[in-house]
Amino acid sequence: MNIVLLGAPGAGKGTQAAMLVEECGLCHISTGDILRQAVKNQTELGIKAKGFMDAGELVPDDLIIDLMKERIQQPDTAKGVILDGFPRTATQAVALDTMLAELDRPLNAAVLVDVDFEVIVGRLCSRRMCKQCGYIGSVADGPVCPKCGGEMYQRDDDNETTVRNRLNVYEKSTSPLIDYYRGCNLLVKIDGDRDPRDVYTDIKEVLGL
Ligand code: AP5
Ligand code: MG
Question: Which of 2, 22, 141, 175 has the fewest CB atoms below 10 angstroms from its CB?
Fold first, then answer.
């Protein structure tokens, strides 16, 4: 099963993907996570991407499409993928269609996790993540990861100014994909402003998992 997780920054894509991976064994590909790793390792990609990410802008399509072409051919993707944060533009969506067609794999659904923008601003300004295991939590977790004991940190782009720009960029460049996937008969919309476990239950149900 191959799924696109659509939704604004902070809608809960990473949170839902982690649950799907744990229970259903799908392969999680988050372009944001890959880019943050590249920034940390100061690779050529990371150096090119950092300025865009810190400003809440999209990294150019050609860089993202190249990284995804390589990632989606890795052996661990054969069991099915959850794409989190990709595609984010019409150009990326068309490129994904081509990549999947070449691999002879269908896209089964585009799941839109729908959350009001003001709710999102509050979530992202209080989000904290674990440096060690990637656990996604909040300031309420304190400085130590409740899962592995690692150090919790705040992402550089989780400040209100950048969050609001990310939401504007989402509205302008990514939200048109909702109609794109509706037109392909693949769109499923889920109310993401509920307990994460209830959101997860709905996602599994619509996917028949
Ligand atoms: P990326 O890392 O993808 O960030 P994003 O899309 O902005 O999404 P987030 O990771 O912020 O939110 P999420 O939906 O995963 O929410 P989460 O589960 O963490 O991208 C970062 C940057 O990289 C981009 O700005 C861009 O520069 C670049 N980039 C990445 N992909 C790109 C692409 N394809 N093209 C171009 N550029 C690209 O949850 C958020 C918070 O809410 C957490 O604290 C969580 O605990 C909490 N929460 C989750 N669910 C719930 C719930 N149901 N109720 C209450 N709280 C909840
Ligand atoms: Mg995320």
Answer: 22
